[in-house]
Amino acid sequence: MTHKKRPIGMVDIARLAGVSRPTVSRALQGSPLVNEETKERIREIALRHGYIVNRSAQNLRRKRNNVIAVVIDFPHLPESRISDPFHFELLGNISNELANQGQDVLLCSTQSVHSEPLEQMLSSKGVDGIIFLGQSGEEGELTSLANNGVPFVVWGAEPQKKEYCVVGSNNKRGGKLVAKRFTELGRTSAMFVGPDDHDEMKLRFSGFSSEWKGALEELAVKDISFQSSRDAVLHWLDSHDWHPDAIFAGSDTMAIGVLSALKAKGLSIPSDCTVCGYDDSPISIYHSPSLTTVKQDTSAAGILLVAKLMKIIEGEIQESEMLRTELIERET
Amino acid sequence: MTHKKRPIGMVDIARLAGVSRPTVSRALQGSPLVNEETKERIREIALRHGYIVNRSAQNLRRKRNNVIAVVIDFPHLPESRISDPFHFELLGNISNELANQGQDVLLCSTQSVHSEPLEQMLSSKGVDGIIFLGQSGEEGELTSLANNGVPFVVWGAEPQKKEYCVVGSNNKRGGKLVAKRFTELGRTSAMFVGPDDHDEMKLRFSGFSSEWKGALEELAVKDISFQSSRDAVLHWLDSHDWHPDAIFAGSDTMAIGVLSALKAKGLSIPSDCTVCGYDDSPISIYHSPSLTTVKQDTSAAGILLVAKLMKIIEGEIQESEMLRTELIERET
DNA sequence: CCCTAAATTGCAAACCTGTGCATTTGAGCA
DNA sequence: TGCTCAAATGCACAGGTTTGCAATTTAGGG
């Protein structure tokens, strides 16, 4: 039919509008340099002909690419250390907020990231900034990244050194809330279940123990999975002749593992022992008996992470910020 | 320090290697045109100086961008219709396989997709192909996409018309497996719980009913959430004076809703009524009592989806393919 | 030693846009 | 009218890579 199957370009719009190509470029960017009505006319023509700018060329010319990489540790993959539905929810909120801000979301699993230096990814894939999810225990690498001027934010625990910007929930406060709740319930001997090498969990424990007045046991588990917390609790119960009357688990997934172990031992919940989780992830609602938990506001988290990252990209420096946590009481 | 802070480019490598820029370009692509030892030398120099090609420029020049969009319906977002941890697992596997194939993963939530025509996204964001996850009931749009020559694959139910390529699990077979299991258990009256406007669920039901010889009730629910299946079952039990002795729920999430309802009514599981889910998602393992379910192999799914999409992008046409499903028996 | 083909390499155009600067246009004013 | 000034637009180049084609070098055969 037509002379060439070539997709429509900026030159074509320029010709149709009877102006030069640069004018079209400026018009589409909303530059104040170009006359209002010309601008409007050009826009109308572009729209009618279904023209959209070529991102590759645009990216090449500007240095900014409008691409944010989200690095996440996927569950159910061989080398995954952290696996929790909570991260999925967070990912959804971040993705939406990035879309609102006109940013593309480049999804990376930690596995693929570890294979090549992150800096490479930046320039190679044209990534403007990075959001790390669930990267506990990588402070070294992250600090090095920050020193190299890579713009990024992290979801996680508040860092000791303020080398980079972290957004997280107020884990310490969350832990205190749980302690208060246990106290209200009249419990006297508590146990915390969680890995001892995980920053967020450590803070939750620290908050809890600062508030808790009764007996306190800490049960360290090797990872945050359902299985390992279940096994750990079973083993503990086997080797002791008493049991705590309240257990605070570092996450909902772990809490359910704890519940499973308690039930297996014939304890009745919550009369013999009450259990509290963390995250307010779907499983804590669906589980029966449903679980009292500490909610982290993932929607606010997504918005805040994105906002801070954008500012960091602009060159501003941003303080870390911990979101308010909230106790969700459910029958247990 | 140095003259310019300009990032290292192909010209620099060329100068260092004492060759021209095009030669470097070809060497890095592994072109057979360039001498083996020259190639090796150039590669070594590039590596040593940490040079990586500028993707924007590369994309501009080639027409291919090596970017695959994954469109997913995130849970816990306002307009989300489908929300299941199962999709998270699938996403992880797809993401990994795409990384293996050297493709970037552009993550899109359905919300942002619906706001602008998909075709725009393609050229604007430089997307080479799309993978749709959980897009049941969009056949119209998808067919139109296919007719416009957009390369994409879908995870979901086998389509009536073979206009585009779908990968999914063999839902019908999955349903049959459940029916067999119920029969083995000596159950006589069954109920299927699931929405009646969801293709995959319909097939699961169809498979089930083709194999099931006993009494059969179909309980239609409005969406696939925990809440609505729980409510539906409660309501049903209230308005009937008997109950089935086996329930097949369209997904694990729904199965847990069903369990919750049954327990609320004081039925004991599995003696009064056995329940079976679908997906083998984490919650089915963690739940207590843990749930018999039908497993879909998400790892194979990811690999297959990606492989087919790549071929479609190359221009080949691909048949839809349903993966084998497998019954996972757990105490219930 | 000359000729031809193959193996390498370099030249220059092309991909599509953004932007500094010069140029044109038109208005306002003495 | 002649001048200045601001607004609007166009020119031309830059950005980093790929690739068709020409040019050069090398090897092999007569």
TrEMBL record, chains A, B:
Top-rank taxon: Bacteria
Signal peptide start and end residues: none
InterPro entries: HTH_LacI (IPR000843), LacI/GalR-like_sensor (IPR046335)
PROSITE patterns in the cross-refs: HTH_LACI_1, HTH_LACI_2
Residue ranges constituting the HTH lacI-type domain according to the UniProt record: 8-62
Name this polypeptide is given: LacI family transcriptional regulator
Classification lineage: Bacteria, Pseudomonadati, Pseudomonadota, Gammaproteobacteria, Cellvibrionales
